[in-house]
Amino acid sequence: MRKNIFKRKNFWKEKLKKAISLKLVFILLLQICWPTTSFALTGGPSQPEVQSFEPIGTSDMVDLFSGDFSYNIPLFDMDGYPMNISYHSGITMDQEASWVGLGWNINPGVINRNMRGIPDDFSGDQIVKEQNIKKNQTLGVSCGFSGELFGLDFASFNARLGIKYNNYTGVGMERSFNVALSSSNKYGGSGSVSLGITSSSDDGLSLQPSISLSQSANKNQTGAKLGVSLGASFNSRGGLSALSIAPSVSYNMANAVNNQGKSYSHDVGASLGGGAKFNLMQPTYSPNLDFPMGNLSITANLKFGAEVFGFTGSLAPGAYYSEQGQIKKLSQVLRMDT
Fold first, then answer.
1. pLDDT at 200
2. Fewest CB atoms within 10 Å of the CB: 112, 165, 180, 195?
3. Looking at residue 207, what DSSP letter applies?
């Protein structure tokens, strides 16, 4: 009897451990795909006078929840608009004093305006912008590896590891891994699935899964053919950033003609395709003055291959240098005519 009770307890403990583990894995994946991003909801810090407002009719001197003391003194009435001075205890470490003292406040009211780009009242004014920045230089080296097993082209993978130096952000790491699976059947259908994983010290972890399907009317890949591909992009710092869908329609026709023992063939084909991409992390538009920039990019790559016991692999070391800089020191003038 005791053994059965002991076994039951172990059974429920194992069940509880599995449930907790699955929950932790779900929370981890949720934070990777849809992280909690903090957005700035204001235009910046505001004065302490506008952070608190005390109605003139307040009569409770003690907060029933926290026990903090508050006091309200009416001052005068201006054309039906009352003015009062109030005091609140519970001073915090980062609290600033208002214009009438620490803890005291006179709030005559405030009008806030959230500005995006240039104010609306800039009509007929000139805005002069000067820019002089140093060059943005990046130098990096990397090494990639890809391979196939026994010549099976339905499965392939490649990986790359690199290190870079940027004069703005310093030393960083770059890692990427891609795997793809493809399949086809004798009825003219085919499909492929791929997953790309990239990680860098600047942009975080990114996942790019995609899937594509196609079906032909005939086994010999002639006639009408329909296809569709779906893709998405996830980022550990931005969450789900993009969704894409691309349908396609094509028609191929092949014909062979025998004339005096000779064989001739001709192919006629037409295709129609389209696609749509939804950017979920697109920032809002703000007016800006752009300056002409110069770009320079140099890339060098080598590739070595070998086959050992049915495994075909290749090693691809490489290096790159990129540079972006202002062509010359300029100033632009924008005239606001609204």
1. 86
2. 112
3. E
* Per-position DSSP letters for 240-274, written without gaps between them: EEEEEEEEEEEEEEEEEEEETTEEEEEEEEEEEE-
Identify whether the C-beta of residue 323 lies closer than 8 Å to the C-beta of residue 310. Answer: no
Other beta carbons within 10 angstroms of residue 43's beta carbon come to 11
Kindly provide the b/e burial profile for residues 154-186, where b requires at least 16 CB atoms within 10 angstroms of the residue's own CB.
eebbbebebebeeeeeeebebbbebeeeeeeee
- Residue (of 197, 183, 190) closest to 228 by Cα position: 190
Q: Dihedrals φ, ψ of 6, to 5°?
A: -65, -40
Residue 329's nearest CA partner among 287, 292, 289 is 292
Nearest to 300 by CA among 194, 143, 161: 143
Q: What is d(CA 122, CA 336) in angstroms, rounded to the nearest whole number? A: 6
For 85, the token pair is: 């001075």
In this structure, how many other beta carbons lie within 10 angstroms of the beta carbon of residue 214? 18
DSSP string, 151-194: T-TTEEEEEEEEEEEETTTEEEEEEEEEEEEEEE-TTSEEEEEE
Q: How far is CA 234 from the centre of its chain?
A: 6
How many other CB atoms are found less than 10 A from the CB of residue 86? 20
What pairs with residue 331 in β-bridges? 130
Taking the model in full, what pTM does it have? 0.55
Question: Tens of pLDDT along 210-245?
Answer: 999 888 777 665 667 788 888 888 888 777 778 888
What pLDDT score does 166 carry?
A: 92
C-alpha to C-alpha distance for 174 and 169, rounded to whole angstroms: 14
Task: Supply the pLDDT for residue 338.
Answer: 44
The proportion of the chain whose per-residue pLDDT surpasses 90, expressed as a percent, equals 9
- Name residues whose C-beta falls within 8 Å of residue 292's C-beta, 6 or more positions apart in sequence: 326, 327, 330
